[in-house]
Amino acid sequence: MKIKGINHIALVTSNMDQTILFWRDLIGLRLIAGLGKPGYRQYFFEAGHLNMLLFFEWNQVEPIPEKDHGVPVKGPFAFDHLALEVEQKDDLWEIYDRLSAAEIWVSEVMDHGFIYSVYSFDPNNIAIEFSWTIPDSDLDLHQNPKMLDLKPTYRAMQGPQPVNNAFPEASPTSDGDKRVYPGEGSEFRNRRNKW
User: Fold this and answer.
1) What CA–CA distance (Å, rounded) separates 42 from 39?
2) CATH label of the domain that carries residue 118
3) Which structural domain range is residue 127 located in?
4) In a domain, 166, yes or no
5) How do 8-13 and 52-57 pair as beta strands?
6) Which among 19, 140, 39, 152 is positioned nearest to 85, based on CA atoms?
7) What is the largest CA-CA distance in the chain?
8) Fewest Cβ atoms nearer than 10 Å: which of 1, 102, 157, 186?
């Protein structure tokens, strides 16, 4: 088994038009698919080759409380921020300029050693980071993984590669038992395109 990347991140909004205005028209992500019925929408934005941001529109949801990127919190919590890679270093300044012109808070460009980043929030208060990877082979963490934690966990000290036999061996599903059930989105195959 090999993971190719992140197919989509599923996020939530109560105002799809405001979300489209931000992600499509200000940030520049193409709106590539949409599903909807009364009380429910599901729209996909292209965030790179085969990567998408998905927004569910739920009318009763409220924007999350604003929380600064990477600042620890207490209590139930699972998501800190969304980081999107940009192609060119100057893309960071273009994003900075666009957000500033729209009067949306945006940080200065920050140097993190292996990436430069700017930070902001979308209309749903989702913390976002736009990053550009510094093209220095020593800092390419995909090619040269680094563990700099002063007290790494036991599992982390086993190294960057998956550890064999960490879980019981899986028995393959037989071809006769491989079934696929219909779910949301199966209508993409047979419903008429509104565009």
Assistant:
1) 11
2) 3.30.720.110
3) 81-157
4) no
5) parallel
6) 140
7) 58
8) 1
Q: Compute the distance between CA of residue 129 and CA of residue 153 in angstroms, rounded to an integer.
A: 27
Structural domain total, the chain: 2
Count other Cβ atoms within 10 Å, centred on residue 129: 20
86 and 146 co-located in one domain: yes
pTM for this predicted structure? 0.85
Grouping H, G, I as helix, E, B as strand and the rest as coil, residue 33 is strand
| 147-154, Cβ contacts within 8 angstroms, sequence gap of 24 or more | none
C-alpha distances out from residue 176 to 47, 169, 172, 179, 180, Å: 37, 21, 11, 8, 12
Structure tokens at 101: 């012109």
Does 118 fall in a domain? Answer: yes
Return the exposure string of 89-101: e unless at least 16 CB atoms fall within 10 Å of the residue's CB, then b: eebbeebbebbee
pLDDT tens, position by position, 13-67:
999 999 999 999 999 999 999 998 888 899 999 998 889 999 999 988 988 888 9
Q: How far apart are CA 119 and CA 96, in angstroms?
A: 9
Report the helix count and the strand count for the chain, using DSSP H and E: 2, 8
